[in-house]
From TrEMBL:
GO cellular component, one term: endoplasmic reticulum membrane
Originating organism: Ciccaba nigrolineata
Gene Ontology BP annotations: monoacylglycerol catabolic process; phosphatidylserine catabolic process
An example molecular function term from Gene Ontology annotations: phosphatidylcholine lysophospholipase activity
Serine aminopeptidase S33 domain mapped to chain residues: 6-75
Gene designation: Abhd12_2
InterPro entries assigned: AB_hydrolase_fold, Hydrolase_4
Protein name: ABD12 lipase
Length: 178
């Protein structure tokens, strides 16, 4: 799998869904690695086709894959060794893996909802907050960007935001701002 391939796949799926959805809204929902794919596809639609996706929901997002890899707990032990940047972080770039959500959100205009659990031990919540701050400062219409955090006591971690019974209401409320 490649970043370009993922993005191309999402665009093909978007075209397929759009052709069959009538006037229904289509939103991109990315989780973890998928958040970079969602923002890539939305940006490509906007810049290359002049089409704006109806909304994007990013669950447990990061700013870019290099920064995420530098902060995920599994790499903590290796960060102290010489060559970590070169062997781990630079190898992502050599493989054309960037997933630059931080750059993508600066040019997007569609509604953007960012969700992050405070007890996420895979993608640190500060990366989601940082992405929100970048988007919020870049968006002309600040009401189109929202960040929702889920307290640690809920135990949602990295993978269980979708299990929160309040999530459908939160998303519906967000989509009503359009």
């Amino acid at each position: 799998p490649t970043e370009s391939g993922f993005t191309t796949d999402v665009l093909a799926l978007y075209d397929w869904a759009k052709a069959r959805s009538g006037n229904s809204s289509i939103l991109f929902w990315g989780h973890s690695l998928g958040t970079g794919i969602a923002t890539n596809a939305a940006r490509k639609l906007q810049e290359e086709r002049g089409v704006q996706v109806d909304a994007i929901v990013l669950e447990s997002p990061y700013t870019n894959i290099r920064e995420a890899a530098a902060h995920i707990p599994i790499t903590k032990i290796y960060r102290q060794f010489p060559g970590f940047d070169y062997l781990i972080l630079d190898s992502l770039a050599l493989g054309n893996m960037f997933f630059r959500s931080d750059e993508n959100v600066k040019v997007l205009a569609c509604p953007l909802l960012i969700l992050h659990a405070e007890d996420d031990t895979v993608v640190p919540p500060h990366l989601g907050r940082k992405l929100f701050e970048m988007a919020h400062s870049a968006y002309k219409d600040k009401t189109k960007v929202k960040f929702i955090t889920f307290p640690e006591k809920l135990g949602l971690g990295h993978d269980y935001i979708s299990f929160n019974p309040e999530l459908p209401t939160l998303v519906k409320d967000f989509l009503n701002i359009k």
